[in-house]
Amino acid sequence: MAASHYPDMQITGSFSHSHELLSWLQKNAADVLVLDYILGGDELDGLSLIKQILSRHPKLKILLSSSMESLAVIRAAFMSGIKGYISKREEAQAYFEAIRVIDSGLRFIPDNIESELSKIPVRKRDGAVLDGPLYYANGEKLSRLDTLLSPREAEVIRCFLDGMQVIEIAEKLKRSRKTISGHKQSGMKKLGLSTDLELFKYRDHLF
User: Fold this and answer.
1) Which letter does DSSP use for residue 38 in this model?
2) What separation, in Å, do the N-terminal and C-terminal C-alpha atoms of the chain show?
3) Full-prediction pTM beyond 0.85?
4) What percentage of the chain carries pLDDT values higher than 70?
5) Are residues 46 and 133 in the same domain?
6) Is 90 exceeded by the pLDDT of residue 178?
7) In what order do the strands lie in the sheet with 61-66?
8) Final residue in a domain of this structure, among 119, 142, 165
9) Contact yes or no for 60/54 (Cβ under 8 A)
10) Which residues sit opposite 142 in a β-bridge?
């Protein structure tokens, strides 16, 4: 499917070498960059290229395209700042749809990897959880809580963020205080947070 089918989108450049891309970005603006993870040869590519691009152009939204489906690589790429991932095996239409999704401010993760990826706690080096909601290829929009936690863990964390104490949550949900405390601790661990202070500090990133 050609770009002409999407009149609201314009392809402003295509590059085979990383230095050409970096040079172009210094002089031109773009909303979304579709980036191949592996460029080959002596090219700067992968996570190093992603980090360099975003350090210079932090507002640029990157859609990573790759034939690799390594969860470790994809997770590391998201932690480095990409907004979406798509397999090279996808048709052109899927690319344009992914571009539209991340340009709107959401994240794009294909169905075949989202469930596995969501099981892995994601935490930046400064302790912050990744910001923004996730957007999956099936059109479902989920918060970070719903993505990473079990329904019971998410429910307990929400109550806690609403200012409720463990005993109050236990009474409301008709569960023991030990069970509530367990859900709270396991939920915080999955979010990469170790203290209540961190949890409240990053509450806006969880919804």
Assistant:
1) -
2) 35
3) no
4) 75
5) yes
6) yes
7) 32-36, 61-66, 84-87, 107-109, 134-136, 141-142
8) 142
9) yes
10) 134
User: Which range of residues forms the domain containing residue 99?
Assistant: 3-142
Residue 128 and residue 169 share a domain: no
Instruction: Give me the helix-helix angle, 71-80 and 46-56, nearest 10°.
Output: 10
Number of domains in the chain: 2
Whether 93 and 170 share a structural domain: no
Question: What is residue 64's predicted lDDT score, i.e. its pLDDT?
Answer: 94
Q: Do residue 137 and residue 46 come from a single domain?
A: yes
Specify the pLDDT at position 114.
67
Rounded to an integer, what distance in angstroms lies between the CA atom of residue 152 and that of residue 169? 12
Residue 160 buriedness (CB in 10 A; 0-12 / 13-18 / 19+)? buried
114 or 61: which carries more pLDDT confidence?
61
Look up residue 174 and give its amino acid: K
Cα–Cα distance, 155 to 90 (Å, whole number): 36
- The half-sphere exposure of 147 on its side-chain side, counting CA atoms within 13 A, is 28
pLDDT tens digits, residue range 53-81?
A: 999 999 999 999 988 767 777 877 887 88
- What single letter denotes the amino acid at residue 105? G
Strand-pair category, 134-136 with 141-142: antiparallel
Give the residue among 63, 72, 77, 183 at the shortest CA–CA distance from 117.
72
**Dist. CA 133–CA 13, nearest whole Å:** 29
What residues contact 135, with CB distance under 8 A and at least 6 apart?
101, 102, 106, 107, 108, 109, 141
